[in-house]
Structure formats: structure tokens, C-alpha cells
């Protein structure tokens, strides 16, 4: 046993042994890190014979264990060429076919570089991985968790659709972040605990899409927050080589690694690629027949817009093709999107209708068919779409439906990317009966499905209109009337176009921004079926104007059509009324002074509810009023030039912002009446009295409050003394009554209310004085009590019989 002094103040043998073992462990780890760093430095990253297995690469034991537990043993081509370069902290541009293992090519260097630098939670964020879609970010994060399970790093996932507060609480402890560009920039601007000043690595997965127009401004803003001295890795199946893109990311002599540049095709060799020449009106029939013939397969179907996805999903779901149907697009909630991707990954046979939101990077196991109903916008998008099948050496098949007008241009674009397709024909015996009539019946019975069909038609026409390759995508060569009929619609809806659009910029722009762009553009165009007149320069169009101009297959009722078609006899606009203002509101005195002399006499009616009779002799020019509702110099004059502004006059709350800046109201401690004066002093007048001014005001206030409390204390004591004196007087009165021989009578409950003691003092020889708070008894109650006292009480059976006979005689 250790001595008493050693047990209290010194270290025992056990503590010394623990410290010794801890120091030895730290020393071994440092030696391992030094040895690993030396192996990485000695490794020939540009060797003609790259490593084939992970054990041949200078990796830490924790990474080796994570790879072995995740069943990763052999390196792919992109991994064997990029991992050694990335371990030596070189900037890399990696390009490889889809499904070639690009995710591990940048996750392993992230773990290894941070491990060799002995990164801890106190060092902040060491690596940032950006992904263009939420689904791809979730997939990268899952792989990171599996491979890095034996490391001590903390990793976080930042994507839209989740709680910002929950992410913000954990960001201060994160070492590796996997994020989408928009959410990452939001945290950089709003989260104070996010420390990225010591960032070591920046990774861009699907770099060509991230550097595209949709994310360009976001990426520029993110890069401004990052340090210049860092390692940057960019991976994609179609890598960019633009000097401007590389300069924006501050790359330092990057190594370009392209695995399929010398290959015969940019797509896997195990992928069978075909296309079918299908006119646009027959695409849905062909798709229905294809799904019916492959009900035991796993099919991924691509459309150009989310509205098409939703319409086809709802329509086919009612037709019941005999295979589970799923749909995925960017307008869904994050929880729904995650649930759908999980279901499609775990199922053996299903059909997923989707947009390009799943076209990049996602790994769905065992996809049998990739069907492209709508042609992709370019060859790069085609490569990413078909990359969802034939992954990691497995077989896969892809088919694309091509309109005759798109065949030549699409094939030429794919040939430039070394992608060759084989043309196939649809067997007419395998074609099912057309579903056009069924869709028409469903749209007739279900207005919501018809509305979805109209939106799907408009979204497809706009997607074709905004394509850059006008030689391949030409609306004039498409039979839009027949296409609308194939969707079950009675006619082709009118479509409004905006000239000078960019396809990818419009595709990635927010919905509110698109609406603003459409509303602000003066140039409008229509389909060849005719349509609306072009908007004049400077003309302001309202929501009602657009509503009355619609001719969308009976959306408007008959009386609305009559309002549109019928013209007024005198040529004036329908219901043209001169604007008038009436009195009646206490807050509108200024408005009353400026009102016209011909205002209605009924001043009690508000302007918004007053009825104006149409007068054909009245000038229909809108009369504009300007009212100043406040005398403040900064008050904004209110212009009354519309019904909305006229209705504003009836709302006191809405008028507050037009009355100028208000003033503080100060309430005294002993008064409820506010005083219109400044409640706070400015700093200059406050500090004019010297440095002891605040202390003096404080002492004066304390003295004033103490004096007031002293006065109130005297008042309270006087009230307490008075109550005590009254209580003693009442008690002496009771004692005096008992000494005089007077009895005490209980007052019955409900007949009278006594004083605080609930007792009434009544003398034997005198009547009791009425109490101060006694209620007057009613005559009926008083007479009943007297009769009860006068009536003798029965003592024997004879007395009861006499009373009964008397009652019978009286009745």
C-alpha cells in the first residue's frame, strides 16, 4: 500500500503506469505516421505499372481495415492512377466512366491526408466534399462512414430539406463535410461555429455539373471563403478542361487523369445501347408496351421535366401495368426523395420515373433497363443517364426514344463523344393496344389529372424551346396537337415563351426567379396554333388580365367567356368606374379633404364596400390621388391609383407605415396616461455631465424610490392599525353582551347574512337591531316562519288525526 502522503498528493504506481503507457502509445502512433509519410513520399505515383490491390498502396491500418470490412480489395483503373497522386497532395482532374469507382478515388486520400496530419476535432473542418444533388451527397456520406469506420474523424452531411438548427449545433466539431453547394453557402453565411479557415482539401464530385451555370455563382461565393493554400480534386465522367473553370478554383498545376480518353467509347463496354425512332405522339404508347413486356425487370425511365414525371406516374398508376411504380423529381420533399431511392435500391423489380436528379453518380444496384423517353439536352447528359446501369462490370441495357426530327442531330452529337447506338424497331405484335382513349376518359373524369396533363405538355414544349441545339430540337417539326391528344387532352394548351433563354440556367433557376423573368420580359412568342397578342412596351398586366385571356379548353365558365367575347356598346372597358373616395374613418381626415365633390352622400360606408353605378357620360380616365397621412418630414405620400390602394385606406394597421416615423410614449410610475416625449436620452447629452453622471443618477433614483417606499410603508401601517382596532372593538362588544346575560342565537343559513363572525347578537327583552349588510327577507318566507312558530307541535296520535281532519276540512 502506498504511504498516506503519496496517496493524497503524489501519483500512485497505477497512475504512473497509465501515463507511461499513454506516452508509449502516442510515440508509436507518431512513428507509424512518420513511416507512412515516408512510404508515400517514396511511392512512384506515375509508375507504368500502377498497384492492383489496396494492400499495395501506402495506406494506414485504419483505412485498410475499413476497406476490408466493406469488401473492397481490388483497385479500379481510376483509383490506381489518382490515389497515389492525391496522397502526395497534388491537384487532380479525374475523368472516368460511370460506375468506375470515382467515390473511393477521393475518399481514401481525404482520410489518409488528414490522418498523416494528425487532424483532431479542435482543428476545424479539414475536408469539404461538394455534390450537385442531395441523393449523391447521401451516397457519398454512406461510403465515407463505411470506409472510415476505424478512424476517429467526425463527418457531417449538409443537404437541403433538413433542420438548419440541428446541423448548426454539430458543425463546430466536424472534420469532414459532405454537402450540396446551396446548403454549404448558407451555413458559411449564417453559422458562426463553422471554422473553414484551416481547410486542407476541396473535392468536387460531378465537377462539370457543379461548374455549370446553375451553380457557378454559388461555387464562386464558396471559394471566396476558403483558404488559397489547399488541395483540390475534381471528378466526373465528363470532365471540364476550361481554363476559366480551373482559374476560379485556384488549381496549382493540376494532374489530368482520364481513364477512357483512349478507349473506344465513353460508356462501359458491358452496356448495350439502342435507340428507337418513335414519333412524339407515340412515345407514351411505346413506353406502356415496353413496361408491360418487362414487369419482372428493374427499369429507370427519364423524362425532361418533373411535371411529365408526375403526370405519367399518376396516369400509369391508374392503368395498373403490373409492376410497382415510383416517381422522383426535384420538387419533392427530402424525406420522400430519400424513401423512394431506398425503395428502388432494395427492390428486385420496379419502374422509377425520374428527371435528371438521379442521372449523376447514384448507384442503384442491378438496374436492368435505362429508358430515355425524352432526348437528353446534350451528349454528356446521355452518358450520365445510361451510367445508372452496367456498373462495376455488370451487364446493362439502355434504349432512347428519338423523334424523327431529332435522330440525325442526336446521333452526330453522340458520335463526337465516341458513343455509338444501334437502331432497333418495335415489334408490332408486342405492341399493346393504344392507351390514348383510356387517358382521354381518365382526364374527362378527373380534372386534376387533366390539369397535370396540361402542365406536362407545357413543360415539355418549354424544355424543347430552351435547348441550345436548335438544329436538333425544333418545335416546328413536332406535331404538338397529336402529342396533346396522346396525353388525353382535348386540345393543345397555349404556351408562352421567353426569348433569349439559356437551357441550363433556366433549368436550375428557382421557380420564383423564373416567374419574375417571365413577367419582366417584353418579348413574348406563341406556338404556331396562334395565340395572345404581344405585350406592348410599358404596359402593366395584372393577374385578372391574364385570367380573362385564357382559352384553355373550357377552364373558364360560360359566363366568363361571354364577358370576354361581348363588347360594350359605347366602346368603353367593361365596368369602367371613376374612382371616388368617401368619408367615415377617423384616420382618413386628410383623405376627406382631398375627396371629390361628387362623392356619395352615404359617408358611413367604407370605400371598399361602396357601390358605384356605371355612368356612360363619366370620363373613364383613372383619377390618381396623393394623400399625406402624417406631418412628419420623412412621411411617404400615399398614392391612390388602384383598387388595392383604395382598400388600403380601410385598414388602420396597413396605414401605419405611411404615417411617418412615430415617437416614444413614456409612462410614469403612478399614471396610466402616456406622455409623448423621448423615452431615452442620446449618448452626447448623457455623457455631458462627466464620468460620474451615471452614478449620480443612479443614487438619485435610489433615494427617490426609498423615500416613496417609506411613505407607502407608513400608509400600509396605518391601514393595518385601523383594521386591528376595529377587530378589537367587535370582540369587546361580544364580551360585553355575554356579561349582560344576553343569549346568542345562530342565524339560519340562507335567511340572512351576518357580519364577519357569521353570528347575530339578540337580546331577550328587546328586538335585535338590523345588521348593516342583512338582506331583507321576502314576505313569503317571513309569513311561513310566523305560521311555523304559531302552530302547536303534535304530541300524540290523536293530535295528528285532528291536524289531518282540519286540513281536509279546509280543503
TrEMBL record:
RNA helicase. It catalyses: ATP + H2O = ADP + phosphate + H(+). Residues 589-639 have a biased composition (Low complexity). Residues 519-528, 752-769 have a biased composition (Acidic residues). InterPro entries: DEAD/DEAH_box_helicase_dom, Helicase_ATP-bd, Helicase_C-like, P-loop_NTPase, RNA-helicase_DEAD-box_CS, SPB4-like_CTE. Its EC number is 3.6.4.13. Residues 283-432 form the Helicase C-terminal domain. Residues 1-57, 515-545, 585-646, 660-811 are annotated as: Disordered. Belongs to the DEAD box helicase family. This is ATP-dependent RNA helicase. SMART domains: DEXDc (SM00487), DUF4217 (SM01178), HELICc (SM00490). It is found in: Nucleus, Nucleolus. Keywords: ATP-binding, Helicase, Hydrolase, Nucleotide-binding, Nucleus, Ribosome biogenesis, RNA-binding, rRNA processing. One of its GO terms (biological process) is rRNA processing. GO terms for cellular component: nucleolus. PROSITE patterns: DEAD_ATP_HELICASE, HELICASE_ATP_BIND_1, HELICASE_CTER. Residues 672-684, 694-723, 732-743, 783-792 have a biased composition (Basic and acidic residues). The Q motif is unique to and characteristic of the DEAD box family of RNA helicases and controls ATP binding and hydrolysis. It comes from Cladophialophora chaetospira. It comes from the Eukaryota.
Amino acid at each position: 500500500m502506498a504511504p498516506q502522503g503519496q496517496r493524497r498528493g503524489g501519483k500512485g504506481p497505477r497512475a504512473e503506469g497509465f501515463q507511461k503507457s499513454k506516452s508509449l502509445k502516442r510515440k508509436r502512433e507518431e512513428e507509424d505516421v512518420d513511416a507512412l509519410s515516408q512510404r508515400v513520399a517514396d511511392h512512384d505515383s506515375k509508375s507504368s505499372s500502377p498497384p492492383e490491390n489496396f494492400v499495395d498502396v501506402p495506406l494506414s491500418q485504419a483505412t485498410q481495415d475499413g476497406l476490408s470490412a466493406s469488401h473492397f480489395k481490388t483497385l479500379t483503373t481510376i483509383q490506381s492512377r489518382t490515389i497515389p497522386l492525391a496522397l502526395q497532395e497534388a491537384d487532380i482532374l479525374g475523368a472516368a466512366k460511370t460506375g468506375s469507382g470515382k467515390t473511393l478515388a477521393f475518399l481514401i486520400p481525404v482520410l489518409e491526408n488528414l490522418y498523416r496530419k494528425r487532424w483532431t476535432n479542435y482543428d476545424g473542418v479539414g475536408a469539404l466534399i461538394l455534390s450537385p444533388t442531395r441523393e449523391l451527397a447521401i451516397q457519398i456520406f454512406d461510403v465515407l462512414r463505411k470506409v472510415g469506420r476505424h478512424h476517429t474523424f467526425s463527418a457531417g452531411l449538409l443537404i437541403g430539406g433538413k433542420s438548419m438548427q440541428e446541423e448548426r449545433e454539430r458543425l463546430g466539431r466536424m472534420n469532414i463535410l459532405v454537402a450540396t453547394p446551396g446548403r454549404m453557402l448558407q451555413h458559411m453565411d449564417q453559422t458562426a461555429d463553422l471554422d473553414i479557415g484551416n481547410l486542407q482539401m476541396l473535392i468536387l464530385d460531378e465537377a462539370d455539373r457543379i461548374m455549370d451555370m446553375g451553380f457557378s455563382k454559388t461555387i464562386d461565393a464558396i471559394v471566396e471563403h476558403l483558404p488559397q493554400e489547399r488541395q483540390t480534386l475534381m471528378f466526373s465522367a465528363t470532365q471540364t478542361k476550361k481554363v476559366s473553370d480551373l482559374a476560379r478554383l485556384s488549381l496549382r498545376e493540376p494532374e489530368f487523369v482520364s481513364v477512357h480518353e483512349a478507349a473506344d467509347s465513353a460508356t462501359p463496354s458491358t452496356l448495350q445501347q439502342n435507340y428507337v425512332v418513335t414519333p412524339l405522339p407515340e412515345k407514351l404508347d411505346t413506353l406502356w408496351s415496353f413496361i408491360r413486356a418487362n414487369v419482372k425487370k428493374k427499369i429507370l425511365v427519364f423524362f425532361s421535366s418533373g411535371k411529365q414525371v408526375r403526370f405519367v406516374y399518376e396516369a400509369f398508376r391508374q392503368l395498373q401495368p403490373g409492376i410497382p411504380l415510383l416517381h422522383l423529381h426535384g420538387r419533392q420533399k427530402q424525406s420522400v426523395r430519400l424513401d423512394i431511392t431506398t425503395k428502388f435500391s432494395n427492390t428486385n423489380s420496379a419502374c422509377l420515373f425520374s428527371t435528371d436528379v438521379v442521372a449523376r453518380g447514384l448507384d442503384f444496384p442491378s438496374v436492368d433497363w435505362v429508358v430515355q423517353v425524352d432526348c437528353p439536352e446534350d451528349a454528356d447528359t446521355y452518358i450520365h443517364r445510361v451510367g445508372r446501369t452496367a456498373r462495376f462490370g455488370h451487364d446493362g441495357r439502355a434504349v432512347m426514344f428519338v423523334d424523327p426530327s431529332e435522330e440525325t442531330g442526336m446521333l452526330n452529337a453522340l458520335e463526337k463523344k465516341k458513343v455509338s447506338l444501334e437502331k432497333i424497331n418495335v415489334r408490332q405484335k408486342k405492341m399493346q393496344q393504344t392507351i390514348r382513349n383510356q387517358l382521354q376518359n381518365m382526364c374527362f373524369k378527373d380534372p386534376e389529372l387533366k390539369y397535370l396533363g396540361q402542365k406536362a405538355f407545357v413543360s415539355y414544349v418549354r424544355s424543347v424551346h430552351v435547348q441550345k441545339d436548335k438544329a436538333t430540337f425544333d418545335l416546328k417539326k413536332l406535331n404538338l396537337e397529336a402529342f396533346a391528344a396522346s396525353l388525353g387532352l382535348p386540345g393543345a394548351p397555349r404556351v408562352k415563351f421567353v426569348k433569349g433563354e439559356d437551357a441550363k440556367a433556366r433549368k436550375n433557376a428557382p421557380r420564383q426567379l423564373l416567374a419574375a423573368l417571365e413577367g419582366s420580359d417584353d418579348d413574348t412568342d406563341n406556338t404556331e396554333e396562334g395565340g395572345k397578342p404581344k405585350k406592348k412596351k410599358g404596359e402593366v398586366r395584372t393577374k385578372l388580365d391574364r385570367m380573362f385571356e385564357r382559352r384553355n379548353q373550357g377552364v373558364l365558365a360560360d359566363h366568363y367567356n361571354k364577358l370576354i367575347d361581348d363588347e360594350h356598346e359605347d366602346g368603353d372597358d367593361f365596368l369602367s368606374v371613376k374612382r371616388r373616395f368617401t368619408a367615415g374613418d377617423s384616420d382618413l381626415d386628410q383623405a376627406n379633404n382631398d375627396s371629390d365633390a361628387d362623392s356619395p352622400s352615404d359617408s358611413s360606408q367604407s370605400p371598399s364596400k361602396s357601390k358605384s353605378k356605371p355612368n356612360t357620360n363619366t370620363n373613364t380616365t383613372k383619377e390618381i390621388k396623393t394623400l399625406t397621412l402624417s406631418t412628419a418630414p420623412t412621411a411617404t405620400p400615399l398614392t391612390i391609383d388602384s383598387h388595392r390602394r383604395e382598400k388600403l385606406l380601410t385598414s388602420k394597421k396597413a396605414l401605419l407605415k405611411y404615417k411617418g416615423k412615430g415617437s416614444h410614449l413614456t409612462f410614469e410610475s403612478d399614471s396610466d396616461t402616456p406622455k409623448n416625449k423621448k423615452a431615452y436620452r442620446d449618448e452626447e447629452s448623457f455623457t455631458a455631465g462627466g464620468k460620474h453622471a451615471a452614478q449620480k443618477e443612479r443614487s438619485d433614483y435610489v433615494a427617490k424610490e426609498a423615500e416613496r417606499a417609506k411613505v407607502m410603508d407608513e400608509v400600509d401601517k396605518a391601514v393595518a392599525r385601523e383594521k386591528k382596532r376595529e377587530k378589537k372593538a367587535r370582540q369587546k362588544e361580544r364580551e360585553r353582551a355575554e356579561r349582560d346575560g344576553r343569549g346568542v342565537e345562530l342565524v339560519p343559513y340562507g335567511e340572512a347574512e351576518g357580519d364577519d363572525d357569521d353570528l347575530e347578537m339578540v337580546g331577550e327583552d328587546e328586538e335585535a337591531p338590523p345588521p348593516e349588510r342583512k338582506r331583507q327577507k321576502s314576505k313569503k318566507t317571513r309569513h311561513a316562519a310566523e305560521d311555523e312558530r304559531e302552530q302547536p307541535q303534535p304530541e300524540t296520535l290523536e293530535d295528528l288525526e285532528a291536524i289531518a281532519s282540519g286540513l281536509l276540512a279546509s280543503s
